[in-house]
Amino acid sequence: MACQNNLVVKQIIDLYDQISKLECLKPSKNVDTLFGQLVSTCLPTDTNIDVTKMSDEVKDMRANLIKLCGEAEGYLEQHFSTILGSLPEDQNPLDHLNIFPYYNNYLKLGKLEFDLLSQHSSHVPTKIAFVGSGPMPLTSIVLAKFHLPNTTFHNFDIDSHANTLASSLISRDPDLSKRMIFHTTDVLNATEGLDQYDVVFLAALVGMDKEAKVKAIEHLEKHMAPGATLMLRSAHALRAFLYPIVDSSDLKGFQLLTIYHPTDDVVNSVVIARKLGGSTTNGVNGTRGCMFMPCNCSKVHAIMNNRCKKMMIEEFSAVE
């Protein structure tokens, strides 16, 4: 096993060397091929590799690789958001999201996160904030379209151009154009209003290293309402070469509810925590929303019907 692990890490290092020498990370045949190979190499979860226990040299490489992946992901979203936003005026860009290479992954991830949220909350959130929504806010779109038809989504991003592209995507949709709002700001500058959200999502690429990730979490803890839910993206095993890891120790001031590690092609792990000090049954500020009802989204269920056999879950009991 040790030899096999060393071989896989060597493959990742070789791919990093090639990727780091690219002049541009915008979508192209070469860029797409290299990142496709990287993702395929990092997908297996049947390994005992712990990236936190590797040599300083490998840790430095991983930190740089995560930043390169984030940059490439941003360019990929910009590329396809621009294409979709340029469709003729009589076409709804949301009807053509399947041109995005990882759209099915977002369908699966959205269903997974909705299911986990339903397990830990008895009432449907009325307002959700997504921090780091980017030019193609697929999580917000998937949740709004398929799972939370009466919820308002507030999308926060530091990049005004990303928000312009994202707004263009939903502007022609009669439903989502009324339920999705975009804010251009750094999350660390957002103070007032964060206590109005039942659920806050923190994107995987907000906080590209441990220090920045913890700083963002601490800021949210300071300004979220007691009892509100924080949903984060993390990574497990080899997948931690692609995205930052969120540990339970990073969640001071929160009750950790679940860390969920997919073992299929959904790369991100899902972390759910609750801000300490609030009720576990009522919404923000004690308001009571509608009860969660079973989702009847047949297409999403068809995609997800084997999910339970392919996932690993870690449950944490409530902190008294």
Q: If you compute it from the alpha carbons, what radius of gyration comes out, rounded to the nearest whole angstrom?
A: 19 Å
Mean pLDDT: 88
Structural class assignment: alpha/beta
Strand order of the largest sheet: 3-2-1-4-5-7-6-8
* Overall form: globular
Helix count equals: 9
Indicate the percent of residues in helices.
25-40%
Low-confidence stretches: 285-290, 292-320
What portion of the residues fall into strands of 2 or more residues? 5-15%
Structural descriptors:
alpha/beta; 8-stranded mixed sheet; disordered C terminus; 9 helices; 320 residues; globular
Model description:
This protein is α/β, with parallel strands linked by helices. 39% of the residues lie in helices and 15% in strands. It has an 8-stranded mixed sheet. A hairpin with a 6-residue loop joins β6 and β7. α4 (103-119) crosses α5 (138-147) and α4 (103-119) crosses α9 (298-304). Residues 285-290 and 292-320 have low confidence and may be disordered.
